[in-house]
């Protein structure tokens, strides 16, 4: 059923439509809402779904890089990656 490992929102909505009989628009809305809930929950801590996977927020460290045009150092602001 799954040919590649990357599952997009559109593909998930189509599968949900086929399995449940919901309209494609409603299925897309459900998938979007689920992903928003996951994003909201992982901002504070790690979220684990049994038999599915785990999600957590990672922090990137501050880096110093050089701008090639004028040879000045630029500092990047640390980021949180969800």
Task: Characterise this structure.
- This protein has 82 residues and is of the alpha+beta class.
- It has a single domain, classed as IHF-like DNA-binding proteins (HU Protein, Chain A), CATH 4.10.520.10.
- It is 38% helix and 20% strand.
- The strands form three sheets. It has a two-stranded antiparallel ribbon.
- A hairpin with a 3-residue loop joins strand 1 and strand 2.
- Helix 1 packs across helix 2.
Architecture blueprint of SSEs:
Layout: H1 9-20, H2 24-42, E1 47-49, E2 53-55, E3 58-59, E4 64-66, E5 73-75, E6 80-81
Helix pairs in contact: 1-2
Please count the beta strands (DSSP E, at least 2 residues each): 6
Relevant CATH superfamily: IHF-like DNA-binding proteins
Order of helices and strands: HHEEEEEE
Could you say what the CATH architecture is? Irregular
What's the CATH first level? Few Secondary Structures
Distance, first to last CA: 28 Å
Alpha-beta content class: alpha+beta
Number of domains: 1
Overall form: elongated
Helical content class: 25-40%
Strand order of the largest sheet: 1-2
Q: Compute the CA-based radius of gyration.
A: 19 Å
Largest sheet: 2 strands, antiparallel
Proportion of residues in β-strands: 15-25%
CATH fold descriptor:
HU Protein, Chain A
Any low-confidence stretches, pLDDT <50, length ≥5? none
Helix tally equals 2
